[in-house]
């Protein structure tokens, strides 16, 4: 089971989240049948969303839209504060690697565009906040977003490692933030440690990457574990929800579906679940409308 561990330094100057998102991204890859670049791009977006949702409380929902201009198209994901995330990438067949090293390329195939975050507190108007994509590698884009929108010095790392068959091997990430009481000397020490941290891919390759991340983030600085929560990929769609959507269509359109298509098929974009509506289902909806 995937997890996020929330921690704070004993000094109260920094806090850090570390995440194991391996099963989340594996599930996303299975449901969407994504190829290499699409898997890594979608996976990184899901992890970014898990990090942003972990900052929220209650019934808040956080949507992340990576609206790039290149081959991958839009990447959309939605997460809640219970550790659940769902998402999809518009073009799931993007599979581009460097010939020499086999490195999976993401940034150039996200392209230029926007990193949009919609925070829905369950009030009337969800809160929209947007920054430009800096590299399209998602991690840097999230770091830029956090620094710009929250005005909190933040360091972020996230990645998805694939095996030789392009299946998800490990996925995870971290967020470190300086808290308002931090002293200059502490911030300098912290920045130095973050700069000297091994690459996120190296840390994710460790046998226990959660512990490797914590060790790299805190060094010999004492810290407390505040909580450990489960994370997963899970979609909240249902036949009833799509039935309600069908019900908003005009009667003439429902009649056309019944007569011409002999039913309707709706595939959930977020999880690829296929919902079938028979002629009888449509007939029931039409009858209820008159
Ligand atoms: Zn679904």
Give an account of the 3D structure:
This protein has 2 domains: 2-233, Hsp33 domain, CATH 3.55.30.10; 239-289, HSP33 redox switch-like (CBS domain Like, Alpha-Beta Complex), CATH 3.90.1280.10. Helices cover 36% and strands 31% of the residues. It contains 10 helices and 12 strands. The strands form 2 sheets. Strands 7-6-3-4-5-10-1-2-9-8 form a 10-stranded mixed beta sheet, with helices on both faces. Strands 11-12 form a two-stranded antiparallel ribbon. Strand 4 and strand 5 form a beta hairpin. Helix 1 packs across helix 2 and helix 9 runs antiparallel to helix 10 (279-289). The longest helix has 19 residues, at 36-54. The protein is globular. Bound molecules: zinc ion (ZN). Residues 235, 237, 268, 270-271, 273 line the site of zinc ion.
Radius of gyration using CA atoms only: 21 Å
What's the count of strands? Answer: 12
> What share of the residues does DSSP label as strand, in percent?
25-35%
At CATH level 2, the architecture of the largest domain is 3-Layer(bab) Sandwich
The fourth-level CATH homologous superfamily of the largest domain is Hsp33 domain
* H/I helix tally: 10
Q: How many individual domains? A: 2
What's the average pLDDT? 94
Keywords:
unfolded protein binding, single chain, 10 helices, disulfide bond, binds zinc ion, 290 residues, globular, alpha+beta, Hsp33 domain, two-stranded antiparallel ribbon, CBS domain Like, cytoplasm
SSE blueprint and pairings:
Layout: E1 2-9, E2 14-20, H1 22-32, H2 36-54, E3 61-68, E4 74-80, E5 84-89, H3 107-110, E6 113-120, E7 127-132, H4 139-150, E8 154-162, E9 168-178, H5 184-196, H6 200-204, H7 209-218, E10 223-233, H8 239-247, H9 251-261, E11 264-267, E12 274-277, H10 279-289
Parallel strand pairs: 5-10
Antiparallel strand pairs: 1-2, 1-10, 2-9, 3-4, 3-6, 4-5, 6-7, 8-9, 11-12
Helix pairs in contact: 1-2, 9-10
């Amino acid at each position: 089971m995937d997890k996020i561990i929330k921690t704070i330094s004993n000094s109260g100057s920094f806090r850090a989240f570390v995440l194991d998102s391996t099963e989340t991204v594996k599930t996303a890859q299975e449901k969407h049948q994504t190829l290499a670049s699409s898997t890594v791009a979608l996976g990184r977006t899901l992890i970014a969303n898990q990090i942003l949702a972990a900052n929220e409380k209650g019934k808040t929902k956080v949507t992340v839209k990576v609206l790039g201009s290149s081959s991958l198209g839009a990447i959309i994901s939605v997460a809640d504060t219970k550790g659940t995330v769902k998402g999809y990438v518009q073009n799931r067949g993007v599979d581009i690697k460097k010939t020499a090293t086999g490195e999976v390329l993401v940034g150039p195939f996200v392209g230029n565009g926007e990193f949009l975050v919609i925070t829905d507190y369950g009030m009337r108007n969800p809160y929209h906040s947007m920054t430009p994509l800096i590299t399209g590698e998602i991690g840097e884009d999230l770091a830029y977003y956090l620094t710009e929108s929250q005005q909190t010095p933040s360091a972020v790392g996230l990645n998805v490692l694939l095996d030789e068959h392009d299946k998800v091997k490990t996925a995870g990430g971290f967020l470190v933030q300086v808290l308002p009481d931090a002293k200059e000397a502490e911030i300098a020490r912290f920045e130095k440690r973050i700069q000297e941290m091994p690459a996120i891919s190296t840390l994710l390759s460790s046998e226990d990457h959660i512990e490797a991340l914590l060790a790299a983030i805190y060094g010999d600085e004492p810290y407390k574990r505040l909580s450990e929560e489960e994370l997963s990929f899970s979609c909240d769609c249902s036949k009833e929800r799509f039935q309600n959507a069908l019900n908003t269509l005009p009667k003439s359109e429902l009649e056309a579906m019944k007569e011409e298509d002999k039913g309707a098929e709706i595939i959930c974009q977020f999880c690829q679940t296929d919902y079938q509506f028979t002629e009888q289902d449509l007939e029931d909806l039409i009858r209820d409308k008159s």
